[in-house]
Write the structure tokens for this entry.
Amino acid sequence: MSTVKSVPKKLTRTRRRTKLDRILAGEVPAKQKNIRVARHPGAAPLKKARDILAEQPVKKKKTGKPQYIVRDEYFYEAKKLGYRARSAFKLLEIQEKYNIIRTGMKVLDIASAPGSWLQVLAKMVGPTGVIAGIDIQKIKSLGYQNVHILQGDVFVTEPIVEFLK
Ligand SMILES: C[S@@+](CC[C@H](N)C(=O)[O-])C[C@H]1O[C@@H](n2cnc3c(N)ncnc32)[C@H](O)[C@@H]1O
């Protein structure tokens, strides 16, 4: 009977190269493919969040849960531009591609902590629009008159209905 344990398939597979990998290797000019790579000046080559997670030591929180902190290009770019999270760039990309948010719109952002989408949305709708953000976690005020924040569970609808009136 063999005592050698088989390596899980997931660990033996090599990662498929993405278009972004090819751009970063200089094989595909980003301009030609109409792809914009947000870079922080003087930054190291862009790495995917999962590569960074694989490299960094896993810190343990007091609760005993491992804490993962992704510090990639988007993290530093978000810091530089004053966004509360790197996810701000996701919404900016969606907007660039689909142009879904217009000036003066009323937008409900469900699960909005720490508030980076609220920051982006506030700029997109302008002072004539209204934004409502709901999250189970507390969101610090963003200082916009037209951004309303509620702390609550999205599955408990009554306070949300009241809030939106
Ligand atoms: C990825 S974050 C959202 C990031 C956010 N869009 C931003 O702009 O930075 C997901 C959020 O979902 C929230 N969440 C998860 N379950 C929830 C629930 N039942 N009700 C309200 N918020 C919830 C979490 O608290 C967390 O802040």
Summary: Confidence is low (pLDDT under 50) at residues 1-13, 33-37. The two ends are 69 Å apart (CA to CA). Residues 85, 87, 111-117, 134-137, 153-155 surround S-adenosylmethionine (CB under 6 Å).
